[in-house]
């Protein structure tokens, strides 16, 4: 019988052990739950709730427009009569990878924000909010998750803030793409044209840092490299192939423009 050198045996043992215990191959990859900004509900006064996601090292979940891979986290509400819920307010996305595939998501801890509006009158002493959520958490592998979260709050005219939840929601609000800016997006290509041309005009901080446009409706895919060109008039231009999965007939292009550490909510429109 041939005996392997001790160094090779140790190498094989370490490799097998690492493969078995690789944390990026073990789900679910996150801790997730529903949080409330305050201890109670007041009739007629909006209440902010959040789906808070803590990602374990190496894992990510997905933005509302993930790109070529992934599934956006969803929330389906079951609310008491007379209550309404806003759409998710999404903090700015990040570029990340599912295995070798580029996509748009979150590696950092993130809170998806939803504003609940109560009716002007509430006869119950307490109310229950149910949020049926689905997500995909990925690293080297992907782990889908489904769960219904519940929060029951008393009806009161003197609600108190919950410090830990308030801090997380405040951080998420600070990470919402800014709507207050003077950057204008202009579409210079025709609807459904194979090559998209976008121009962004305004007062950019100089020197211009690396830019990236997150398409929020899938017209631009996450697997295409983006190269912005600085024009003589001070604008920047992006020319990029249209995604094969792009919705048809779109005359505007909504998204988030990243410039350095700035994230700007923009809806590019044809030049008037």
Description:
Helix content is 10%, strand content 43%. Strand 16 (253-259) and strand 17 form a beta hairpin. The protein is mostly beta strands.
Topology (elements, then pairings):
Layout: H1 6-21, E1 30-36, E2 47-55, E3 61-67, E4 74-78, E5 84-85, E6 94-98, E7 101-106, E8 110-117, E9 126-138, E10 142-154, H2 163-174, E11 184-187, E12 195-201, E13 211-215, E14 228-230, E15 236-241, E16 253-259, E17 262-270
Parallel strand pairs: 11-17
Antiparallel strand pairs: 1-2, 2-8, 3-7, 4-9, 5-8, 6-7, 9-10, 11-12, 12-15, 13-16, 14-15, 16-17
SS elements, strand count: 17
Estimated helix fraction: 10-25%
Q: Strand-residue fraction? A: 35-45%
Give the overall form: globular
Structural class: mainly beta
Low-confidence stretches: 1-19
Whole-angstrom Rg: 23 Å
Instruction: Determine and state the CATH class of the largest domain.
Output: Mainly Beta
How many structural domains are formed by the residues?
2
CATH architecture of the largest domain: Sandwich
Q: Kindly report the spatial arrangement of strands forming the biggest sheet.
A: 13-16-17-11-12-15-14
Oligomer: single chain
Largest sheet geometry: 7 strands, mixed
Q: What is the number of helical segments per DSSP (H or I, 4+ residues)?
A: 2
> H/E series, N to C?
HEEEEEEEEEEHEEEEEEE
What would you give as the CATH superfamily of the largest domain?
A: Thiol:disulfide interchange protein DsbD, N-terminal domain
How is the CATH topology of the largest domain named? Immunoglobulin-like
**How many angstroms separate the termini?**
82 Å
Mean pLDDT: 91
């Amino acid at each position: 019988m041939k005996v392997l050198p001790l160094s090779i045996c140790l190498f094989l043992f370490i490799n097998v052990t690492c493969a078995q215990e690789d944390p990026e191959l073990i789900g679910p990859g996150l801790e997730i739950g529903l949080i409330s900004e305050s201890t109670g509900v007041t009739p007629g006064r909006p209440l902010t709730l959040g789906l808070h996601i803590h990602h374990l090292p190496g894992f990510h979940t997905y933005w509302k427009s993930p790109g070529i891979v992934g599934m956006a986290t969803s929330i389906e509400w079951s609310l008491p009569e007379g209550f309404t819920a806003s759409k998710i307010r999404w903090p700015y996305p990040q570029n990340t990878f599912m295995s070798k595939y580029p996509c748009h998501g979150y590696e950092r801890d993130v809170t998806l924000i939803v504003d609940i509006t109560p009716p002007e009158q509430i006869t119950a002493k307490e109310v229950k909010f149910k949020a049926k959520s689905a997500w995909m958490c990925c690293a080297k592998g992907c782990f889908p998750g489904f769960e219904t979260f519940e929060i029951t709050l008393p009806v009161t005219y003197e609600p108190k803030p919950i410090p830990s939840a308030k801090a997380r929601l405040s951080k998420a609000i600070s990470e919402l793409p800014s709507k207050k800016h003077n950057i204008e997006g202009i579409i210079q290509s025709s609807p459904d044209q194979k090559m998209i041309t976008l121009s962004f005009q305004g007062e950019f901080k100089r020197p211009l840092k690396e830019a990236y446009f997150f398409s929020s409706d899938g017209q631009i895919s996450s697997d295409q490299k983006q190269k912005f060109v600085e024009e003589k008039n001070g604008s920047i231009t992006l020319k990029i192939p249209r995604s094969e999965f792009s919705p048809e007939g779109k005359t505007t292009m909504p998204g988030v423009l990243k410039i350095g550490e700035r994230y700007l909510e923009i809806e590019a429109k044809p030049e008037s």
